[in-house]
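Fresh eyes needed here. Have a critical look at this protein's tokenised backbone.
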Amino acid sequence: MRRKFLALAAAVVLVSAGATAANAGFDNPNKIAVQDISGREIQTFSIKQLKAEFSQQTYNTRTPWTQQDKKIVYRGPLLTDVLAKSGLAKIPAIKVIAYDNFVSEIRMDEIRSYRPILAVERQCTQDDRVHDRCEADQEFRPISMVEKGPIFIVWPYDKLPDTYVPARNAIWVFFPVILRAEK
């Protein structure tokens, strides 16, 4: 029953997010566009490119949505590397726009200090193997929309300062599709 509920919830999210995103011109959550301050597209990266063109980092971390003692291993390129390859290494901030039109502004000093990744995969678990989400020899798998994917900005939660407030979850952006330079 729970599996059916999750599948139904995912379908509702996909349909509603798809309608909203399509109206805004964001038709593919499996790609991320990098834009200058004016909104002109500089570069677009597919998940395949994010995996192939950048060094992959892994974070074994919890998030504001996981149980206190539960960690997930995420993998993807550093956000700083993606911005640098697009010529945006020296900007003061970025505006992140998600597939569902959620918008968050993240300061570059935070990005440089805490080194978030554009997670595109998560490590396979025994539960994944039991439920056929991973083959026996598979180490990582894509992040589903129910799990806040296919691209998820992930921070090393345990390395954030004690003053970090998890309720300020704007820096944890699910399914981002645009990274736009900000002043």
About this structure: Residues 2-182 form one domain. Residues 1-24 have pLDDT under 50 and may be disordered. Helices lie at 2-24, 47-52, 79-85, 108-114, 126-130.
